[in-house]
């Protein structure tokens, strides 16, 4: 009789562990070193978060690090169907702790809510929405380019970015889907130095190291550095296994100053 209850106990413990993982924050510190980065942008720090979904951003995670942040980037899925807009606004106000400009790109779950409402609320909170747009960020006499992709369900559609606005300066691409970069034409990819993306959740639940998607982290495609987060929240069920609930402090460094 006791032996029959062991599988049940183990199953319950596993479920509790997966729930704990889905709500246990990991704030990582990442470094990107480049010779193409203007020297005046050495130590430029990005707070990057994506795939918040149903979660409330834990203030302790944000407030516990006193690092100066130059820009906050939200890589889509800020909200999903069934989540109150009040929670979304509360999450934005938590991110305002960094007193830095906040940029947002659309994810698929954002579009499944009420996009007009999201636009109105984010505009009121002074969040900059990038829909196939290019922003220039200045520091001293130098600048870098920030490109933000809209979300497209059709894989055949190309982002409607005016690539003539993207010069030879260091360029960051913020996109929800990592594959959006890979589907670009070669000359467009060549303009991008760093890609920040989410969407995959690292597979969210991985068994024996296998999942629907690869783990998050860094990879290199030609000269471009690609960083994919495993995401802050979860989709469908509040479970994780073999992945982490992540947000990131990413510091850019010029190679001559390292």
* Largest sheet geometry: 6 strands, mixed
Helix/strand/pairing category: alpha/beta
Strand fraction: 25-35%
**CATH class descriptor:** Alpha Beta
Low-confidence spans: pLDDT under 50, at least 5 residues?
none
What is the strand tally?
12
Distance between the termini: 63 Å
Radius of gyration: 19 Å
Number of helices: 7
| pLDDT averaged over residues | 94
Overall geometric form: globular
Whole-number total of structural domains = 1
Helicity, in percent? 10-25%
Q: Report strand order across the widest sheet.
A: 1-12-2-3-4-5
CATH architecture tag: 4-Layer Sandwich
Q: From N to C, what is the helix and strand string?
A: HEEHEHEHHEEEEHHEEEE
CATH topology: Purple Acid Phosphatase, chain A, domain 2
Architecture overview:
The chain is an alpha/beta fold and 258 residues long. The chain has one domain (2-257): Purple Acid Phosphatase, chain A, domain 2 (4-Layer Sandwich). Helix content is 23%, strand content 26%. It has seven helices and twelve strands. Strands 1-12-2-3-4-5 form a six-stranded mixed beta sheet. Strands 6-7-8-9-11-10 form a six-stranded mixed beta sheet, with no helix packed on it. It is globular and about 70 Å long. The N and C termini lie far apart (63 Å).
